[in-house]
Amino acid sequence: MTDTDARLLLSSHLSTPADPDLADTPYGRLGDFDLAQWLTDRDDLHAQALNRLERRVHPTARIHPTAILGEDVIVGAGVRVWEFTTVRGRTYLGPGVSVGFNCEVTNCYLGSDTVLGHRIGLNRTLVGDGAHLSADVVAAAIHMTDQMTRPDRDAFLRLPDGLYRCRTPRFGALIGDRVQTGSRITLGPGAAVGRDCRIHSHTAIGPSSVISDRQVVAPADPTAHHAHQRRR
């Protein structure tokens, strides 16, 4: 399979935030960005958003006293962050997001009304609106290497017309709007799940995997996945 020059616009998986506070920030035009462009420029883009916001944490958000919230995290209206959870790095939590007990969310984007269950670990992952991830979902952000603290193998996706280079060694997953998962799911490093998919419990979606919209994904064996089209 050869490299492809195609773009992978975030609008293919994610809805652009409707939050008026973000209209004049890079998040307000999220769908226009190519995935690789967003991943490589994310730190700067998030910093631009922080500089333009009057408030970083919406006053209606409820953060449990035992939760840890990083200084660069942007929190929308009505967000709930539950006990013993850490949200850090340049993370955005959209309006109505709920992050459950004992989760770790780092350098992520979570779209409006998305729900994370308990003990979820997401790193450098983008999740669309209205998704629901059940307990023990993990998105790995780097490939196995001899020096895990200094990854040097860029993530890529296996698109139908060739390899799509993410231009960064640190990328977990791109999870579309309204994706629903069971528990004990592993993704990536480097995975893309289309809108309205359902992922059954104990499924591993391996590195560089691409799942199209409206698929039902179930474990065929401990190291593979099997997908079929959802009925409307």
Account of the protein in words:
There is one protein chain. Helix content is 8%, strand content 31%. The model has no long low-confidence stretch (mean pLDDT 91). A hairpin with a 2-residue loop joins strand 24 and strand 25. The chain is globular. The strands form five sheets. It has a seven-stranded parallel beta sheet, with no helix packed on it. The chain has a seven-stranded parallel beta sheet with strand order 3-6-9-12-17-20-23, with no helix packed on it. With 232 residues, the protein is mainly beta. It contains one helix and 25 strands.
Alpha-beta classification? mainly beta
Mean pLDDT: 91
Query: What is the count of β-strands?
Result: 25
Low-pLDDT runs: none
Shape, per Cα inertia axes: globular
| Fraction in beta strands | 25-35%
What is the gyration radius calculated from CA atoms?
Answer: 17 Å
What are the secondary-structure elements, in order, as H or E? Answer: HEEEEEEEEEEEEEEEEEEEEEEEEE
- Cα end-to-end separation: 33 Å
Helix residue percentage: under 10%
Output the strand order for the largest sheet.
2-5-8-11-14-19-22
Number of helices: 1
What kind of sheet is the major sheet?
A: 7 strands, parallel
What keyword list fits this structure?
mainly beta, 232 residues, 8% helix, globular, seven-stranded parallel sheet
